[in-house]
Every structure is written in C-alpha cells, then in structure tokens.
C-alpha cells in the first residue's frame, strides 16, 4: 500500500467531509442507489467491507485450510513406495541421505533402518492416485482433488516449520495466510469475523504439539485481520456475552460511549489501530446474535450427519469442526483455519495413524460432498496437509508390525480441492525412498504464490508497507505459480 492509499484509508471523518462539497451528496446518492449499484460488488456486505485489493478475479472466494499438526507420514498415506519392501531393516544409503540435516532425535542413532509402510495401497479414480487403505472415503474422491507430492521446506522442527507453512517465514510474528486473505479480500458478512480458527480434538492424544496464537496473528497487518479463535467447549468466544445483570441496552450505551472516546483519540493521535478497536467492538456486539446461530447444529439434517459421520455431533471433534467450517462459508466467512493435532508419529505408527486417519477421512469426504451439493465447491478452496513429512527410516527399532518416523522436510504430500484447482491431478515425484524430489519440486513459497493466485492476487505485487519495506507472504526469494495445479 502506498503512503497516499494509507492516508486516505485512515483519514478522519472530518477530513473526509472537508475534501469537497460533494462528499455528502455522493454519500446520499450511494444510499439511494444501493451499495451494489454504486460499487459493483457482489453483495451489499462486500460493498461495505470488501477491500478490492485483488489484481484479477480469483476463482476462490473462501478457504478452508485443514492443517495436520505434526507432519503426516507421506509414505504411509499418499506416496506409495512398494520397492521399500526389499529394503526392510536395511540402512538408508548415504547416496540417498546426501548428508542432509537430521533432528537431534535420530542424529545419534547408530543406524537408520528402512521401515516400509505396513498398510496396503491401491490405485483409485481415473487419475490412478495411490491411496492407503486407512483413507477409503478420501480414496473415493481423488478425481476431485489435486495432489502435490513434492512439497519441500528448510524447516526441520515444528515451531519454525508450522510458522513457515502458515506465514511464509520461520520466524514468528509475520502475517499468516488467513490474515493476508482478510486484508486483501475483506469481509463478505457483517456479523462474523473474516478469519476464524478452529482447533479440533484428536481421538488419540499420545503426542500433541503446542499450537500458539502466533500462528493466526495479523503480524504487521492491521489487527482487525488476525484470526478469531472459536473454542470447542462452553462459549465459543470468551467474554462475548454480556455479564450477568448487564442488559443489552446498557451494553449498547457503553459501546457508544467507548466509540466516542476512541474517535476523539483517533482525531488526536491518528493511530489506525484505534479504528480497528472501534470496528472490533461493534463486530463483537453483532456476534452476540450471530455466533449462537452459527454454532447451533440442531437444524442440520440426518442426511448431513451421514456425510460427516456421527462424530460431527460431538463438539470439538474434527468432524464437528469440518461441519462448522461449511456453515461459516455459507455465512460469508472468508478463511477458516482448522488444526488437527497428534500427527507427530515418532513411534507407534501402527497404533496412532489409524486413529488419525479415522478422525479425518469421512469428514473431509463429507465436507467436499456437502460443498458440492450446496454449490460452494467451485468458490471454496480446501487445503489439507502438514508442516513437513516423515523419514522412510525408523526412529528407534523397527519391526514388520510397528515403527516410528522422524521429521523430514525435503519432501512431503499435500492436497487441494475446489476453488479453481485442477481436479484429478498429481504433481511432483519423489525417489524410491520418498526422501528426495526427482521431478517438479514445489517449495512453500511456490505453494503460497499459487494459493494467492487462486484468490486473485499477484504474489509479487500483493504487499504491505512496513518499516520502509514492502512485506509480502512469499518473501524476497524467488517464488512461482504452479500452473499445472490450476483448472
């Protein structure tokens, strides 16, 4: 954003009215003609709240990002390597490892024994995508999905890796993808946040990772673009309801008084965060009515629950959050970030991975079928994946029945669906050990550039001026859009 654009965006009401004698007249004309006619927006809500910073018309208007915290093992789910059966309990060759960095959890091992997947695979759909037996529902819709088997990152530990995946930088404090989406596209509704975060409870809780609110921070973007976290139990949002003994008229009068005080402060200081505070107070007031309606699933039909599974009736489950995500898209929420924990399978892959897959398989299938039935699939981008992959060698001992896998950043698998992605496509290829990429690598920066393209942004031009620099999601290193992923 240029200094002039920043000045115009943050000018006071008095300054706006003083810019010309026609200002009030244009405002009156806008009211008489209607917001859609005046601004050409798709909805009245978008005319009021939409920012219109996109460089072209994007195919995706909403994003549901399903992040599997911990790093799913790609060779046990989507990157089938049958050749590894012949390598069972043999050491990973130095020619494959190539001196790549290891975590401290396995760097001291005397050997690195190969652990072939114990799960059966089969090809599915016209695309012929190989999928594990643990994901039968997902396997049935591979022709609606776009698979990337060559994601790669430099981060090898969870905190920097998740930060990198979400914000484009291993150092926390930068705006995340959801915040950039909110900043660029604005809101499609008046009564709910533009960017919402849901943290699902896994069935198995052997090794959950800490999930910090820094992941959905707005960073150097205005505070209004930070994610709003909904809780899985009790009140979805803390302190949103009036305290006991405080009726709605008193709350309204209090907010009006705070607004006047904040406006006085803004006129004196000019800090845009004061305007953010005013807007957030008003949004919270409107959410007192909209959030209970959003989270009340009693109106959903049994047919809907057949899509997502009976677990959708349990607040906090992954299925429940997937259903909530669809309801949010219907109500105009731009970006829904869902976190599902316990994918950090350093041990007991045989015991934990079936639980993890059971949690997400049917809900992911149900979400996509539900979006398709409601005409929302083409405009909603669904993303599934973790922050890195896992090693083909076992952490600790190995047996045919069980094994563990360490972190591996050099290659992993993610998928997307809807929102302008190319259905039934498979992009990228790894070596026989699922250790190195041999065809079509996709760095995190390339992935972010492609997602921004689907939303209507040129990643090189989509910037925000901060401390004299133009900050952007894809950073300063080269990044490219992957056209093979686009419909």
Q: In terms of per-residue confidence, which ranges show pLDDT below 50 for 5 or more consecutive residues?
A: 21-49
Quickly count the helices.
16
Relative strand content: 15-25%
What is the overall silhouette?
globular
In total, the number of domains comes to 1
Major sheet attributes = 9 strands, mixed
Q: Helix share of residues?
A: 25-40%
What does this structure look like?
- 35% of the residues lie in helices and 16% in strands.
- Mean pLDDT is 89; it is low at 21-49.
- Helix 13 (302-308) crosses helix 15 (349-373).
- It is α/β, with parallel strands linked by helices and 487 residues long.
- Strand 2 and strand 3 (129-132) form a beta hairpin.
- It has 16 helices and 17 strands.
- The protein has one domain: Alkaline Phosphatase, subunit A (3-Layer(aba) Sandwich).
- The strands form 5 sheets. Strands 1, 4, 5, 6, 7, 8, 11, 12 and 15 form a 9-stranded mixed sheet that branches. A two-stranded antiparallel sheet has the order 2-3. Strands 9-10 form a two-stranded antiparallel ribbon.
Provide the fold topology.
Layout (H helix, E strand, L loop, with lengths): L2 H8 L2 H5 L5 H11 L1 H5 L4 H6 L12 E7 L5 H4 L16 H4 L23 E4 L4 E4 L3 H4 L5 E8 L5 H10 L9 H9 L9 E6 L27 E3 L17 H22 L2 H24 L6 H7 L9 H13 L4 E6 L8 H25 L6 E6 L3 E6 L10 E4 L3 E6 L7 E3 L1 E2 L6 E3 L2 E2 H12 L8 E3 L2 E3 L16
Parallel strand pairs: 1-7, 1-8, 4-12, 4-15, 5-6, 5-7
Antiparallel strand pairs: 2-3, 4-11, 8-11, 9-10, 13-14, 16-17
Helix pairs in contact: 11-12, 13-15, 14-15
